[in-house]
Write a structure and sequence with these properties.
Layout: H1 3-7, E1 20-24, E2 46-49, H2 67-77, E3 86-91, H3 93-107, E4 114-118, H4 138-145, H5 152-155, H6 158-177, E5 190-195, H7 203-206, E6 217-222, H8 228-231, H9 233-246
Parallel strand pairs: 1-2, 1-3, 3-4, 4-5, 5-6
Helix pairs in contact: 2-3
């Protein structure tokens, strides 16, 4: 498997001089959660779901446990794609990764055309929930179940939990150990998408994303809960297409 195939296992082949959208999943998620996106957007946009180490096709690799390590690995592994005509999308934990990558690319003077974040509070706000990554055994899974995103088949299967726990724990460490970024730092537009039934990220915790960039800002609420990425993909696809059209990316 080539380096690009490791990072982008579900990529639709296309001209990389065309606009590209890198997609980053929630904690515990893999690139496969974005498979439906490949057919939901025109061929003029390269859809690039990102596979982080430690999951799905990369299950035998150790998961990364810090945001700095994730960004360093992304820049190294995806360097040919990190130029102009780039859109970044991240859901939940993926929003934090996408924002940190946008900061790095802005520092490298190749900022993204647009940053789209979903289901995560603005990164400089204080966390409202206890940290999960340091919990052990049943305490970890009991706390995780409060997020309402753990399938029953996983929760009730001890062997599957044992397989997935290191990766999920590492993902939470990425978010929970990071230092809050300074306000500002970006000059690209930001669009923040929230679910109308997302109890974890109400609208007032999305709005401060506006403070992270000097570019334009839009906040959109769509039907769904914290896991709208999985449970309401059609509406999310439509919302993202409209955003890309509004910025003349499609």
């Amino acid at each position: 498997m080539s380096e690009s195939q490791k990072w982008l296992p579900w990529t639709r082949t296309g001209d990389l001089t065309q606009p590209r959208m890198l997609l980053f999943p929630f904690a515990g998620g893999g690139a496969s959660v974005f498979r439906s996106w490949l057919d939901a957007f025109p061929a003029s946009l390269n859809i690039l779901p990102v596979q982080l180490p430690g999951r799905e096709t990369r299950i035998n690799e150790p998961a990364l446990e810090s945001l700095d390590a994730v960004i360093a690995a992304l820049v190294d592994g995806l360097r040919p794609l990190l130029g102009r005509k780039l859109v970044l999308f991240g859901g939940s934990m993926g929003a934090i990764v996408a924002h940190a990558l946008a900061l790095r690319l802005t520092q490298d003077e190749v900022p993204p055309e647009l940053l789209i974040v979903g289901a995560h509070a603005a990164p400089h706000l204080p966390r409202l929930y206890p940290a999960l990554h340091s919990l052990r055994g049943d305490a970890f899974w009991d706390a995780l179940s409060s997020y309402e995103g753990v399938p029953t088949a996983v929760h009730n299967n001890a062997e599957l939990r044992e397989l997935l726990e290191p990766m999920i724990r590492a993902d939470f460490a990425v978010v929970e150990r990071r230092a809050p970024p300074p306000v500002g730092g970006l000059n690209c537009p930001i669009a923040a998408i929230g679910g109308t039934m997302d109890r974890m990220v109400p609208p007032e915790r999305l709005q401060p994303w506006q403070e992270m960039s000097t570019g334009t800002f839009s906040q959109i609420q769509i039907p769904g809960d914290h896991f709208m990425l999985m449970r309401n993909p059609g509406v999310l696809h439509k919302t993202v297409r409209e955003l890309l059209g509004g910025y003349s990316i499609l």
